Fold this sequence. Notes:
Helix content: 40-55%
Shape: elongated
Largest sheet: 7 strands, mixed
Structural class: alpha/beta
Distance between the termini: 83 Å
Strand order of the largest sheet: 3-2-1-4-6-5-7
Order of helices and strands: EHEHEHEHEHEHHEHH
CATH class of the largest domain: Alpha Beta
Strand content: 5-15%
CATH topology of the largest domain: Spore Coat Polysaccharide Biosynthesis Protein SpsA, Chain A
Amino acid sequence: MSSRQTIHYSVIVPAFRENGNIRPLVTRIFAALRRADSPVPAEQVEVIIVDDNSRDGSVENVQSLQQEGYNVRIVVRTTERGLSSAVVRGFQEGMGDNMLCMDADLQHPPEYVPTMLASLSPSSTFVLGTRYGKGVEMDKDWPVHRRIISAGARILALPLTSASDPMSGFFGIRKESFLKARNLNSQGFKIALDLLVKAHIPPHAIAEVPFSFGIRAEGESKLTGKVMIKYLEQLAELYWYKFSALVVFLLVLFVVVLLIFARSLMSDLPPAAQHKY
Length: 277
């Protein structure tokens, strides 16, 4: 297993009852990293599974992978729940200066991990896997209602960031940018969107890597009505976070204009009429 000093990249995988996907995910990640054309050396990468106390054999599965030489470890949370807080915990645990988040369900193809990690740099502090890139047929295997939900979620986020697909959940961030973020919403549905706004990532610092969603192999989708409501709540919080100062300024400006207008009306009245007020 790699020593602490050699780890420059951390791949964070939030998981709940995803034991059936852990082995193919980890082996495919490291197979991609060990290819001759990989821009990132496998020995500089760690994989961290953040598990919400699934009790489904995930711990034993990770231990078996460790014995086979894979640099993977698991963090089991017993008092916390939720996707976003799991990602934050993983980023806090990561040893690397470059951190990547991906789903455990194999819908984020592990073969893209080397490219995603290599896209991070001091000038590109955020990398986003986008389903809206050139040559990508967005969500081609999804039913119509899922496509509508995905498109609607993206449109609602457009005023918050220039990123083309903050909904994908396949993203990376430099450690120093992550540490600058304050008041992260650990209950939010889309932690990438939260980080883009609260870490103040400028448009020129966002690298995008086009990819197509893979097909879920094991487990169940986490998209529920409750999750969608949480996303709307998260959007409301982010809109206020980003635009509250502008809203206050516009309100003050409106009041000032009203006062000037009222004073102008008063000055146009004859003196006798002004005394009545």
